[in-house]
Specification:
Number of strands: 4
Number of domains: 1
Number of helices: 6
Strand content: 5-15%
Largest sheet: 4 strands, antiparallel
Radius of gyration: 19 Å
Structural class: alpha+beta
CATH architecture: Roll
Helix content: 25-40%
Strand order of the largest sheet: 2-1-4-3
């Protein structure tokens, strides 16, 4: 009987510790923790913001984190958000993205195009996206979206972050090589 009680108490303790760690990790993604949240985020400890965004949808974040999609869930340890960005760069932007995967990229099927073919396609999509971004999103790979929501500094890899946070609103980047494939990003606001 004592052994059974010890097992139950131990399991309960592990579940509680796991829940606290998980809640702490989710809380670190709040807009309040990023310095932009209001009383709603402080009261609820959620990742919701008034405008919405990719970090607001746990299914989106979990799906893409596991599937090699758009965003890692947390910044790298010791990351210094925006360290290489020019002064005056925004702390958070709303963006859209076109993904062009290639063999060997995270989440890309084995039957994906070669990296050279992907770069050629990404360059043509980027050129056309400057006049009609939404139409080019439809030609991109799964994970492409014309409005991915808002994202703060310090979440993306440095080349993708630099490309996105140095664009002016409405501008579209050239292809950027990321671990998930080539990205063409548009800064919405």
């Amino acid at each position: 009987m004592q052994r059974w009680t010890a097992v139950v108490v131990g399991a309960f303790s592990l579940v509680m510790i796991g829940a606290l760690v998980w809640k702490g990790a989710r809380r670190s993604l709040t807009t309040d923790a990023l310095g932009d949240g209001g009383p709603e985020s402080r009261a609820t400890g959620t990742t919701e913001s008034k405008e919405g965004g990719v970090l607001d949808d746990p299914f989106f974040a979990a799906d893409f984190a596991m599937d090699g999609g758009l965003l890692p869930l947390l910044p790298a340890a010791g990351a210094n958000p925006g360290a290489d960005l020019p002064s005056g760069s925004p702390k958070m932007v709303r963006f859209g993205v076109i993904l062009v995967q290639y063999r060997g990229a995270q989440g890309a099927p084995a039957s994906s195009r070669s990296k050279d073919q992907a770069l050629e396609l990404a360059r043509s999509l980027a050129q056309a996206a400057r006049t009609d971004f939404k139409a080019q999103v439809a030609k991109g790979d799964p994970g492409s979206m014309d409005d991915a929501g808002r994202i703060p500094r310090g979440v993306l890899e440095p080349p993708a972050e630099y490309a996105l946070f140095t664009l002016s609103p409405g501008a579209v980047s050239d292809p950027v090589d990321t671990p998930r494939g080539f990205w063409i990003v548009k800064r919405i606001e």
